[in-house]
Design brief:
single chain, 48 residues, mainly alpha, 3 helices
Length: 48
């Protein structure tokens, strides 16, 4: 498991929780195996 969040906006971390665009949260810069498994980002994959 990995969690790495990078933002070019220095104010990104001022709010809580940080909001990341849904389309970028699973598929962008993610290993193929993980992207395919969770790409729908639906309730089933979130519960997993």
């Amino acid at each position: 498991m990995f969690n790495l969040l990078i933002s070019g906006n220095p104010e990104s971390w001022d709010s809580s929780p940080y909001e990341l665009e849904r389309g970028r949260s699973v598929v962008e810069y993610t290993a193929d195996e993980i992207r395919e498994r969770y790409r729908n980002f639906d309730d089933k994959s979130i519960r997993e």
